[in-house]
Design a protein that fits this description.
single chain, Pnp Oxidase, Chain A, six-stranded antiparallel barrel, 23% strand, disordered N terminus
């Protein structure tokens, strides 16, 4: 039976935190549309936005996901017990950034084992190298093996309630590209004038 290797389990939260920050920043730069290009390596990802309670800090984290019959299922806690059951129970309202859309929704944990394992397997199959890096082989493991190895992972179902538009969404930092391009162009022209 495959289980998460202890060494990976210890390093995973730190490595995942570093990686997740980069992915969320890339989406804010407007690179989310390119997600299908890198999905064979890093997996099929969305950005999950959540506030535990009013007035608390707003968190954006990447999550591996899959779409089944129009429903979104994701793993925001890959390799890290960060208490999403508590977060969902406290405030189920979330936002998700998909490669082609931005939605408000309601989150709930999938706990029925008859539903959880088949759905979880699909998410893991779409997680790129991450499942195998965590010692999981979703294409080979039996339901019993997968259930035992992933008992601490929380599968979240997102019910999309309405599309979102306006500021604060994917690409809200895309202006950085314009500023960077302008500065580089200015430097290039300045060098030519000096010559």
């Amino acid at each position: 039976m495959n289980r998460m290797h202890p060494a990976i389990g210890q390093k995973w939260p730190v490595n995942w935190a570093r990686f997740s920050g980069l992915i969320a920043f890339a989406w804010r730069l407007g690179l989310g549309h390119w997600a299908p290009v890198w999905s064979p390596l890093v997996g099929q990802m969305l950005i999950l936005g959540h506030t535990i309670r009013k007035g608390s800090r707003y968190h954006r984290i990447p999550a591996h996901y899959t779409l089944i019959d129009g429903e979104v299922y994701c793993l925001p806690t890959f390799g890290d017990r960060c208490g999403w059951q508590h977060k969902v129970n406290t405030n189920p309202e979330v936002e998700i950034w998909l490669p082609d859309s931005w939605w408000a929704g309601l989150a709930e944990e999938v706990t029925d084992p008859r539903l959880r394992i088949p759905l979880l397997r699909q998410v893991l199959l779409h997680s790129g190298v991450f499942a195998r890096a965590a010692g999981l082989e979703p294409d080979l493991m039996t339901n019993e093996e997968l259930a035992a190895a992933t008992h601490d992972l929380q599968l979240i179902k997102i019910l999309r309630t309405r599309p979102c538009t306006g500021p604060g969404g994917p690409g809200d930092l895309a202006w950085i590209w314009q500023v960077t391009t302008g500065v580089l162009l200015f430097l290039l022209l300045s060098r030519r004038k000096k010559r």
